[in-house]
Amino acid sequence: MSIKSYREATFDAMKEEMIRDGTVYAIAEDINGNGGTHGRYTGLGEAIGDPGRVIDAPISEAIIVGSAVGAAMSGLRPIVDLRFSNCIPCAMDEIVNQAAKSRYMFGGQAKVPMVIRAPDGILKMQGAHHTDCLEAWFTHVPGLQVVVPSTPAEGKGLLKTAIRNDNPVLFFEHKKLMAMTGEVPEEDYTIPFGKARVVREGRDVSVIVYGIMVSRALEAAEKLAAEGIDAEIIDLRTLSPWDREAVLASVKKTGRAVVAHEAVRQSGFGAEISATIAEEAFGALKAPVIRIGAPFVPIPMAPNLEDLCRVLPENIYEGVHRALGRQSDR
Amino acid sequence: MRKLSFSMATCEAMAEEMALDDKIFVMGEDLARQGGIFGQFKGLPEKFPGRVIDTPISETFIIGGGVGAALAGARPVVDMHFADFIGVCMDEIFNQMAKVRYMFGGQAKVPLVLRAPDGMTIQGAAQHSQAVEAWFCHIPGIQVVAPSNPEDAKAVLKAAIRSDNPVIYFENKILYKETAMVPEIADEVPYTIGKAKVRREGKDVTIVSYSIGMKNALGAAERLAKEGIEAEVIDLISLSPWDKEAVLTSVKKTHRLCIAHEAVKQGGFGAEIAATVAEEAIEYLDAPILRYGAPFCPIPFAPTLEKMVRVFPEDLVKGIKGMFE
Amino acid sequence: MKVSKEQALKFYETMCLIREFETSVKHDFLNGEIPGFVHLYIGEEAVATGICAALDDTDYIESTHRGHGHCIAKGADIDRMMAEIFGKKTGLCKGKGGSMHIADFSVGMLGANGVVGGGYNLAAGAALANKMILKNDRVSVVFFGDGASNRGTFHEAANVSSAWKLPTIFVNEMNQWASTTPYETTTAVKDISDRAKGYHMPAVIADGKNVFEVYAAAVEAVERARAGEGPTFIECKTFRVEGHFVGDPELYRTREYVKENAALNDPLTWFDRTMTRKNGYIDGVIEPQELEAVRAAAKEKIVKAKEFAMSSEYPDPDQYTADLYL
């Protein structure tokens, strides 16, 4: 084990996979100029001894994604970085109609082993065109897989799986993860998709989260523990496929559920989680299923208004109290 | 009142509104010379010369240009051909159409209607059969409507055109041929975006649906009635905003909820309805919430396979009967 | 093309306002007073100035993430611009948009667009509305960089504008850098205006540091557009002096390279040098002290704008759902 930042851990994932498999390459805007998003590709070409596999793209998300689909169908394994999730709509057709469906439509003749990395989420005052969380859209598209890591170790293992996986993967990484540090195993390891991890065991309530919300839920859990409330925290890790069994087992144990994400609440992935619980663990529920997400507005720029769109530990804390049927101290 | 098809009802709505306001114009592919591939713009080019424009194959211009035209003071109705292609202009919808008014602090308004034929036909296969309304319900700044019959088709389109907000109007391809009695302009009842309609009253179970899904909902209700189960059927009509009060009121009465739509179940709009009830009215429920949607795969071509991704009234009937065991 | 001395001084005033505004914003950003993203227009002032001088308030411009210069040149209220960059309620967009989404519809500035290449179709759509539906002679200008000309949306807007002779004016700010990529590494054409040929669109290349040349090209393009003759492509050769955004470590180019090219392309030093001697742009010359006075006045305006921004409050929290739906 060693302490690494998320950026370092995911760099290692790419480096190791690109050395292991010469068909893996990376493509993004500004990938060589300043190391791409958050500088996380700096030195990658040299590290793998093959700078030709780290490619600068023109400003054309449609080309970046579309060409990756074509390359993947021709036998390569692209890692595409779109810099901001808000750039994804510029390549929506390439993702939804091409990457997602080519294998199925062509009766299995093709496979599309590609990873689309996209930083997302609210940092500070980046405005409405650079802050959205869009993971929910892609959970609704058969053929795609959706991954949302929560720590450096998780990022490394999940990214390796995504790269080795033969399916098109959307890999959403909250911007606040970049600077996060944590223990990362030294050995080669992967984390399977569709398997959640129980980050904290508890008896009183199931808090179901992913991505940056995992660390925020942990913070809320500490405060709740001081009040004698024992929260179980589940990190979904992947949203499509997602570990329904783990979530249902937890809710059947605790009888209460709180779901939280930073994306807009209406039609966010939390709805799918809540709906599934109401459908398949209905008998075990002792309380309404609490669902927390951003309000129904674009992200404003003024810092005090932007703050109203964040989902923070205190929101989860309050949500748990609502699930327990009482008002919190706040 | 006279019998009109869904398609002709939309033409009538367009013609009435365009006669009232000459800033309204239409653009899209294959509209002026052909009247739309489903005949949904028939007669308009002749009635309003110069105001129905055939565009190149350029969805980013159809929608992005529509936004620009709205900013300049016009009132565009733009046509998407097939909702499946909406990915091609997703940025224009998500980052421009939805956000321009808000980001610019209210300086602008975008009175634009995006008409998008959607849903399965017969063997339309994976890229011409999709229902993607759920994506747009997740986007603050736009509104989403999906009428299920000719009368609503007309009233809802008129409301969308008159609205100063950007509205996406999903019109199911199969529904175009449906006919029903539609009021003439004199006794027209205007529609308010965000309001649902109770199509059938009942006390035993609430079935919620919209657009083509209403066929399954009403079909199931008929069959259930023969077995002594009275279903209350709610047609949402608007999905964003949606009539939460109507659904909650019904559920508090019937204590059972079943939601159905044609779109893929996972991440579909049904999840939002179910999750809302699970948070705000779960204590009223006597049974788990049922949710029906397409299974998690693209739409296959072969008829034997395509059948497997459809939802049928029998599916709802079976599930609802199970709620009483 | 010759202009009056007053007009020349007006050009200079606009360019100085932009330069001082950007310098102030850069300083404040590096000081940690402005979070988010800021993209500076330093070195490109003559382009926005020359183009916008040929437009009326009722003509439209579509801007980019690098939009402060366009906004100032189009005549936006500078105090309210500064307040917007700080996210204050007195800002042009009431604190909702910030630097990358700055807009002033009262002077036809339809907004800075945070999506590179997002503005072409909006401009073409406004042009369509004005020509074909509202039937007036307003024109729509879309500013875009060399990198942005690689997006599919450029081609769609160029095609439709040419096919229907829309009053769209495509102003390419050829500043040689698409974020960290030098344009020649991702673009096959040396002159972006070569692409106009493919759309049967007249094109002109202007020296982007020469505000008079830019202005002359704009005047002609506006005349054509108003006469119903369709779009024009104006390529302004310029140079992006600062990094892509403030805080950009600029690992992709050397300090020496930047210094040399900044000096070669600077529109203000060019103006100073040229106007203080006999030249072909105005009758007579402008004295150095006149130029200094304009520069000093511009600086003063920016200081006042900053004060206005600092003394303004953030928006009231309950405003966060305002200006969404009508």
Automatic annotation (TrEMBL), chain A:
InterPro entries: THDP-binding, Transketo_C/PFOR_II, Transketolase-like_Pyr-bd, Transketolase_C. Its cofactor is thiamine diphosphate. Pfam families: Transket_pyr (PF02779), Transketolase_C (PF02780). CDD domains: TPP_PYR_E1-PDHc-beta_like. Gene3D superfamilies: 3.40.50.920, 3.40.50.970. Keywords: Oxidoreductase, Thiamine pyrophosphate. Residues 4-180 form the Transketolase-like pyrimidine-binding domain. This is Alpha-ketoacid dehydrogenase subunit beta. It comes from Yanshouia hominis.
UniProtKB/TrEMBL annotation, chain B:
CDD domains: TPP_PYR_E1-PDHc-beta_like. Residues 4-178 form the Transketolase-like pyrimidine-binding domain. Pfam families: Transket_pyr, Transketolase_C. The keyword Oxidoreductase applies. Keywords: Oxidoreductase, Thiamine pyrophosphate. Its cofactor is thiamine diphosphate. This is Alpha-ketoacid dehydrogenase subunit beta. It comes from Yanshouia hominis.
